[in-house]
Amino acid sequence: MAADDYAALQAAVLQTLGLDLRLYKREQMERRLRAYGQQRGFTNLQELADALRRDRTLAPQLMSYLTIHVSEFFRDPRFFSDLRSLIQELPQVPRPLRAWSAGCSIGAEAYTAAMLLSEERPGYPHQVLGTDVDEQSLERARHGLYREEDLRQVDAERRSRYFTAAEGGYRVHQDLQRLVAFRRQDLLRDPYPQGQDLILFRNVAIYFTEQAKEQVLQGLAQSLSPKGILMVGSTEPILRPQAFGLRQVRPFFFTRD
Ligand SMILES: C[S@@+](CC[C@H](N)C(=O)[O-])C[C@H]1O[C@@H](n2cnc3c(N)ncnc32)[C@H](O)[C@@H]1O
Q1: pLDDT score at 3
Q2: What is the pLDDT of residues 46-74, one digit of tens each?
Q3: With left for phi above 0 and alpha for psi between -120 and 50, is residue 101 left, alpha or beta?
Q4: Does residue 71 form part of some domain?
Q5: For ligand 1, is residue 69 a contact (CB within 6 Å)?
Q6: Same-domain pairing of 91 and 41
Q7: Which of 25, 101, 206, 233 is in Cβ range 3.0-4.6 Å of 130 for a Cys bridge?
Q8: Protein residue whose Cα sits closest to atom 7 of ligand 1
Q9: Does the residue 72 lie in any domain?
Q10: 29: in domain
């Protein structure tokens, strides 16, 4: 694959999707782009770049293809028991809490956070924000309809409390849905919401370059309210938390003093 082909496609992706591929690991991205191009019958990346500029309907499809959306409720359950205890230890402020699922995919993580907040701090209209760069995932998140396999870590009690059976799966109950809002945000270029008591940033940075990851962690640390909790993915430890003004409280959990 010619290097300038990739450069041409990088430019077209930036122009049409707004996604800056220089901040993603090239190997994985190039592999996915090549596979997508082949599926569509293009012989090289330059042709895909030209098509992206010509046909506006390609951009959202490519965005969805490029980004990985695997997710489920209570993904890696043991970390959610830790999260539950850490929520209990948050300052006892008499107000709703703010949580942010950064890179929320289909929304399961944001709804999971909303469940824990309403269980541990009942009686408040907590505000959970789910953001993602991929509109198609956000549409599914807003829709709130999930398959059986997305709920495999959800016990019977929570199933009956937070979901109603619907055609094609389970629908998130309105009372929970009311606590959660979804909006598009590119973590690599858009402003970050501030004053978050809880941030979940999991399984998103896998394809970011080191420099991009550091840039995002810097921003997330600033979005945390003092004593707030940042939860990262089980394969994404932060090796030098102090560089971002963070302190580790448990493996994969950090706070800001
Ligand atoms: C594997 S999912 C993780 C979902 C959830 N956090 C979890 O752990 O179950 C990764 C998500 O990151 C999103 N993503 C990738 N690059 C992003 C960016 N620059 N800004 C925001 N979201 C991004 C993808 O669209 C995808 O939905």
Answers
A1: 57
A2: 999 999 999 999 999 999 999 999 999 99
A3: beta
A4: no
A5: yes
A6: no
A7: 101
A8: 71
A9: no
A10: yes
Question: Final residue of a domain: which of 20, 44, 66?
Answer: 66
Stretches in the chain below the pLDDT threshold 50: 1
Q: Which pairs with CB-CB distance under 8 Å and at least 24 residues apart come from 47-50?
A: 48/9, 48/12, 49/5, 49/8, 49/9, 49/11, 49/12, 49/13, 50/12
Q: How far is CA 8 from CA 45, 51, 193, 202, in A?
A: 8, 12, 33, 31
pLDDT over 70 percentage in the chain: 99
Number of domains comprising the chain = 2
Domain shared by 189 and 228, yes or no: yes
Ligand 1 lined by 133 (C-beta under 6 Å): yes
Q: Which atom of ligand 1 is nearest to the CA of 106?
A: 27
Same domain, 118 and 234: yes
Q: Domain of 163?
A: 77-255
Q: Whose CA is nearest to atom 10 of ligand 1?
A: 204
Looking up residue 196, the CATH number of its domain turns out to be 3.40.50.150
pLDDT at 1 (0 to 100)? 46
pLDDT digits (tens, 9 = 90+) for 169-194: 999 999 999 999 999 999 999 999 99
* Model pTM score: 0.96
CA of 144 to the centre of ligand 1 (A): 17
Ligand 1 pocket member 112 (CB < 6 A): no
Residues 41 and 157 in one domain: no
- Residue 167, both tokens: 């055609």
Nearest CA to ligand 1 atom 3: 203
User: How high is the pLDDT of residue 4?
Assistant: 74
Average pLDDT, rounded, for the chain:
95
